[in-house]
Amino acid sequence: MNILNHEFKARITELKPYEDLLKGKNPHFQGVDHQKDTYFNVPTGRLKLREGNIENALIQYDREDIAGSKLSKIILYKHKPDPALKDILTMQLGIKVVVNKVRKIYFIDNVKFHFDTIDGLGYFMEVEAIDTEGIFSTTELQKQCDAYFDFFGLSANDLVQSSYSDLLIAQGLD
After folding, report:
1. Model confidence over 73-112: pLDDT tens digits?
2. Which of 47, 54, 88, 173 makes an SS bond possible with 120, Cβ 3.0 to 4.6 Å?
3. What angle do CA 123, 110, 40 make, to 5 degrees?
4. Cα gap 161→148, rounded to integer Å
């Protein structure tokens, strides 16, 4: 599945105030996912295997490492958990880093909200305006994402430009 989205990631000191603010908009709560994202060594973009109790997928994505909302081009392969896939990828590519997290997942229409607790890094919020069917322009996706940035009252100082994998590597926690 090819996906286009605009997203931002913000470092926050606690999850509850932002989650409570979102609950005022009556989002659909998908659940709490205990996720292990294994990133593999690849020549371009990022390749990760997500193992969770809600989401399981092999995800290849390209995006700029900039603060603020940014465009991501994603290829998502959903699968049933099978250790053979991880074994093959590990043998062929090698593991770059593993990210362990607890993620609360909400949706409002095509916008996905993550409230993340990341081992070794702390608390984060991600907002993704997602298009899986080619019905939104990149401008529309960016406007949705930016509207939620304003809704949550975030500032430019809260924004994180890097992936969790890069943050862990930078801190020597890989």
Report:
1. 889 999 988 999 999 999 999 999 999 999 999 999 999 9
2. 173
3. 55
4. 17
Q: How far apart are CA 22 and CA 151, in angstroms?
A: 9
Question: Quick one: which of 17, 147, 135 has its CA closest to 69?
Answer: 147
The answer, yes or no, to whether residue 172 has pLDDT greater than 90, is no
- Whole domain around residue 146: which residue ranges? 2-170
Tokens coding 165 = 């994998």
Q: How many domains does the chain have?
A: 1
> Domain with 64 in it: what CATH number?
2.40.320.10
**Closest Cα partner for 38 from 87, 98, 83, 80?**
98
Q: What is the pTM of this model?
A: 0.91
Rounded Cα–Cα distance for residues 125 and 135 (Å): 25
State the Cα–Cα distance between residues 107 and 94, nearest whole angstrom.
Answer: 34
